[in-house]
Specification:
By secondary structure, the chain is an all-alpha fold. It is built from six helices and no strands. It starts with 7 loop residues before the first helix and ends in a 10-residue tail after the last helix. 5% of the residues are buried.
């Protein structure tokens, strides 16, 4: 049975491309503009806006926009073995099934 692997770094670098990959895995054909539309609906800022709205706060808060500009964390593949050891994080890559 085939499995889908989607990396955080790929999602950040090319959200529309990852939407396309997920859709193809599910057997759904989307045009590039449809993939871009889906990706634009699920940005960090929009997701935070939805959360704020569900809690009764305005969706266009500056907090959501500030959070959306925080750089992505360093991936485990680029983190040094020493840093992983100091943080207590396992050096083994996760196994996805």
């Amino acid at each position: 049975m085939a499995c889908l692997v989607s990396r955080y770094e790929d999602m950040v670098a090319d959200p529309a491309g990852e939407v396309d990959q997920i859709a193809r895995y599910l057997g759904i054909r989307l045009r590039r503009d449809e993939c871009q539309d889906v990706a634009s609906q699920y940005t960090v800022a929009r997701q935070l806006g939805r959360i704020r709205e569900s809690r009764g706060a305005p969706a266009d808060s500056s907090t959501a926009m500030a959070f959306a500009t925080i750089p992505a964390p360093i991936s485990m593949s680029t983190t040094s073995a020493r840093a992983r050891a100091e943080s207590g994080v396992s050096s083994r890559e996760p196994k996805w099934r």
